[in-house]
Amino acid sequence: MAGRRPFGKVRKLPSGRFQASFIGPNGRRQNAPNTFGTKTDADRWLARVRADISRGTWLDEQLGRRTFQEYAEAYLTDNPDVGQRWAETCRRNMRLHMVTLLDVPLVAITPPVVRSWYSNAIRGTGGKTSIAQSYRFLRAVLNAAVRDDAITRNPCMIPGAGSVKSPERKIATPDQVAELITTISSERYRAAVVLAAWCALRRGEVCAMRREDVNLTKGTVWVRENHVELLESPVRYNKEPKTPAGKREISVPPHVLTFLVQHAERGPAPSGSSSAATASRCGATPSTRRSCERGPRSASISRSTTCGTPGKVSRRPPAPRSRTSRSGSGTPQRRRPTGTFTPWTAGTPRSQRR
């Protein structure tokens, strides 16, 4: 009686040829890419596969024959670290910049193929930022293919291809921010712009802020979430910051606090939202948001650039503030008349800004 085969399985097909198969390290049965004329040839193929597994050089040939598009879609769907916004960006880049790679099997994506694709993309009409994003996505997908034993190594070896050197952004002056604030047609959105400009907040952080995140007594705001809007669909949602450091309490400068007080005194938004000072969560349409962002061309505030000393992250409770009766003749000096914007840092020595 013949002994049990130590590794793999060989069976004779009705055609008279032999098929070899084995259970790989991934726990799935793998068939040989072709059939064999004799049983001895099938045994030799299984012996080579067993040696590759023992040396750690075995590759999943079935997975390696999958196209880049199939594997990339599975990567975006199954990876818990990929958010909806990044997945949307990757799919758009595949459609615009990675067409020549979509139908290529993983095992056929070699360093020369990657260099040829990158050189053609960088000479094309696409933006450098999108191409760098595409290269990073390609590298991440092929890193996953290496971990899945589909390929031996990652062919993405172009130095600096995944990084973009952006020019330094201009910082708006206090006068430019003041002009921008007065240009906004709706007063409801002025607090959001002032808060972003002087407290160094991103647009998503301002849009996700709610009334319970604003403490007018202490003069602080809490950043707990980030508002995300997809570009190619109406999906909107809030998510936590990428790192724990993203959740923080920020001290609000007195002249910015004035705008928050005025915003709170106007009452809730018509839609009933409880957001503190947002355009997106108060039911603003894209055209309304564009009107909020419209201002002097010289005041370039593309990503919450600050025009002076921004609100600092609070490490201890703020110093007590002097209280003056509203009914009395003395009004706190930092409270300004409605509609005015006088930055307390403009022309003021640093020692007197506290």
Key phrases:
3 domains, three-stranded antiparallel sheet, hpI Integrase, Chain A, 354 residues, mainly alpha, disordered C terminus, 36% helix
Report on this structure.
One of its GO terms (biological process) is DNA recombination. Residues 267-285, 321-332 have a biased composition (Low complexity). Residues 265-354 are annotated as: Disordered. GO terms for molecular function: DNA binding. The chain has 354 residues and is mostly helical. The protein has 3 domains: 9-58, no CATH class; 68-147; 174-314 and 333-339, Orthogonal Bundle (hpI Integrase, Chain A), CATH 1.10.443. The chain contains 12 helices and 8 strands. The protein has helices spanning 39-55, 61-64, 68-78, 84-97, 99-102, 111-122, 128-147, 174-183, 190-199, 203-207, 254-265, 286-293, and strands at residues 9-12, 18-23, 29-31, 214-215, 220-223, 226-229, 236-239, 248-251. It has a 3-stranded antiparallel sheet with strand order 1-2-3, covered by helices on one side. The chain has a 3-stranded antiparallel sheet with strand order 4-5-8, with no helix packed on it. Strand 4 (214-215) and strand 5 form a beta hairpin. The relative contact order is 0.10.
